[in-house]
Structure formats: structure tokens, C-alpha cells
Amino acid sequence: YLGELSARALTKTRGIHDAKNPYPSPIQNIRELFVFGGERNCIHAEFNIEGSGITYQHGDHVGLWPSNPDVEVDRLLFALGLGAPDRRTAVIDIESLDPQLAKVPFPVPTTYETVLRHYIDISTVASRQTLGLLAKYAPTPEAGAALATLASDKAQYGSIVANGCLKLAEVLQLVAGNAINSKPSSENTSVWNIPFDVIVGAIPRLQPRYYSISSSPKLHPTSIHVTCVVLKYESESSHRAPAKWVFGVGSNYLLNLKMAAHGEEAPFLSQDGVESVTNPMYAISGPRASYQGDTGYKAPIHVRRSTFRLPTNPKTPVIMIGPGTGVAPFRGFIQERVALARKAIEKNGPDALADWGQISLYYGCRDENEDFLYKDEWSEHQAELKGKFTMRNAFSRSGPRKPDGSKIYVQDLLWEDRAAISEAINEKRGYVYICGDAKNMSKAVEDILVRIFNEAGKNGVDELKTMKERSRLLLDVWS
């Protein structure tokens, strides 16, 4: 196995495509959604599922199976003394010594490089437990003592490893006195004599990254659309480690695919004299180049079912709150209603939507001209839905401000529209959907809903709880 995710993938036999056997889906369209030249990226990707047997519904999630970036694979291979070409490609077989324990979490036989690239999560922040386990294999007593300290001292671990977002190989380099912001090589990386089975036992399996599907099968039966903001931020520096860029594994894998599709270069080293990764490179051609075709690339995916669904009756009012990429499932929701509207109008004439409930979308982003996702699509949908679809937008950087000068966010628009929202929920039994950031936005929106219920003479906290229990308030949020 050189990265194949299942026996069927290796033998190319047909079968059901699910989490145990992801489908290598041809990418039929992949493009940048933010204005070109900005600091941030947001990728729109369309995965072709024609002939795969995969089906989906609006509101479902798609699991994307990324690999680890080249630089992290190299870093850990060199730290383990496996960086030489003949060592990294050496074939290995791993088996569980105790039949009572879980079986090996990935297919074997395979190679050292394949395990680190495709099968285990070497890109995650190193855990204290793992560091404690590996201290005895250090190349010097000083490195072993430093690693043991990071494992046992919670405060030091927090400031250096957790806040610094350091992966296992970076911690091994750091405590051995190696520079972690240089391109890893045998010359600049100390070797740790850690048995490979210890590494495999300590690091969890590389998991799929899940994204809300941003299309409806009623308009796009043979493709699944994904809207993904690319995760890239700076870590906190400490007295031991400088600040560095931190990259989300799944989103930067998609960014690599977008760059390849458009013939863009993904530089490894920044040009200002400081050696650091500006865009991590991935082996997007896949195992045995099986993800690279004549017309483009493929990526392994599967669908995860969700309960995040529109009410079946279009007469029920719907309130959707989704700033940023939180708008993704609501693009699918609107497409679902557009398909239904076309059928209804075809059957019953131009007034077929007269008794439909109002569909309200509350969306927010920084700037109308920089990161307004699918800006050109919404007005077309509004026209097709004959005034039944309204959209309110909060632009935190370019939009109007409150009287005190503070920014306006989606929750402020909800409060402005509280009379209409109260009527839709309390009198017309409407549904509310929240998608996006769980830590701040979703909490702020729930607080506003409580205030709206309180103003209507109800117990807001109880009302919110009841709506959740009855699946009239549904959340698709992430931290």
C-alpha cells in the first residue's frame, strides 16, 4: 500500500464508497472565491460523483481525505533517521502483538514514508503523553531532559508547544537544538532512535476533514460542492521557539489542488531571506499517481449524513444565519428551494409561491468587494423565488457602523428585525438554522434569540431549549 485508503482502492474493485472506502472523485471545477491578491483564500471545489453510487442531500457533510504536507513528512523521516531514499521507501509490515488490542489502524504492508504521509496525523500538535513516552530515545541527555520537562510541566508545554502549535517532529528538533524554520535535511536534523512501532502507537490515524456541502442534488445531482476557507495563521512565539505559520491540513491540501488546476506556483521558501514555508506542498498526485488524470486531479471523499435539513413544507418560514463560510449549507438550501419553485411554477403557474413562507438569510463578512461569497448568485435566486427569499448582510469592515462606532454583525441585524423574527418563529412556527463559528457567533445569535423571546413575553431560555428539542433550531457549528 502506497497511500491507498482501502483494499478495494488497491485492487481497483468496485464497491460501496463510504468512510471505509472513499471515492477518488474527479475535481471538475476548483477556484478562488476571495478577491485575487488578498491575504486570505477561500476555495470553491466541485467533486464529480457521476457513476460512483454516492448520493447526498442538502445539509450533508463531505469528508475529504488529505495527506500530510511534504515538509512535515520529511521533517519526521529525518528525525527518525529514515530520510535517505532507500530507507524512506523500505517496505514494512506491522501487526498487533496482542489479538485483544485494536488491529493496525491502516493497511499493510506499506513503507515508512507512506505511513507518515497518508496514514497517521503527524501534523497535529504533539501531546504531552507522546512527549513523555519518547524522552528516553533522545540523542543526548540534554534533549531527553528537555523533552521530559515539556511532558511534565503543564505551563511550559502550554507556552512552548500548545501556543507554538508545534508538531511532534518540530518538538524533537527543538529540544535537540535544531532550527525548526529551515527546510529539514539530514545535515540539520538530529536522529532519534525511536522504534517505528512506538511512533505508530503514539500518533492517531489521519482523519478526514469534514465540510458542509454547499449544493443541492436537485440542481447538481452529479456533483458535490464545497466552500472552504484556507486556514493559515501565526503561532505565538516563546523563549524557545519563534513564531511560525500554522496551516490547516485539509484546507491547504485543497489550496494545492486549486493552484495545480490553475498552473500557479506554490513556493516553499519565502523570498525575504527568512526560511519558512509560505504554502506547504502536498503529494496531490496520490498513491501511484492514481489521483492525477488527463483532465485534472481527483481527491478521495465520502458523504456523512446530517439532520441539518429544511422543513418539508415550503409554507414554513425559514431563518438562516451563516456568516463567512457558514453560508455554505444555505447555498444548498436555497438551491433546494429554487428547484422546488421551478417545479411548482411549471405546474401551477406564476403565482404558485404565493403561500410559501419567507426564507431569510443573514450573512456577514469583512468587505462587500473582497470576501462576499457567491455575491452574484443571490440576486438570481431572489428573482426565481418571487420575493420569498430575502438576504441581510453585515460587512464588518466596509459597512455602516453603530452610533457608538462599533461594527455591525449578523446578531445586530437579527435584533433590528426582531418583530419579523418573533412573528416567524412564534406565530408561524418557523425554523431557525445557525452555521459557522461555535465559540463566538453561534453563542451571540442564541443570546439574541433569547432576548427576542423575552420581549415577546416568553421565557427565552426555556423557549430556545424547546426549539432545539423539537428540531426547529438546528446548528451546524465548529470551533
TrEMBL record:
One annotated GO molecular function: FMN binding
Organism: Rhizoctonia solani
Name of the protein in its database record: NADPH--hemoprotein reductase
Keywords linked to the UniProt accession: FAD, Flavoprotein, FMN, NADP, Oxidoreductase
Cross-referenced PANTHER family: NADPH--CYTOCHROME P450 REDUCTASE, NITRIC OXIDE SYNTHASE-RELATED
Signal sequence, start to end: none
Keyword Acyltransferase recorded: no
Required cofactor(s): FMN; FAD
Lineage, top ranks: Eukaryota, Fungi, Dikarya, Basidiomycota, Agaricomycotina
Entries under SUPFAM superfamilies matching the protein: Ferredoxin reductase-like, C-terminal NADP-linked domain, Riboflavin synthase domain-like
Enzyme Commission number, as recorded: 1.6.2.4
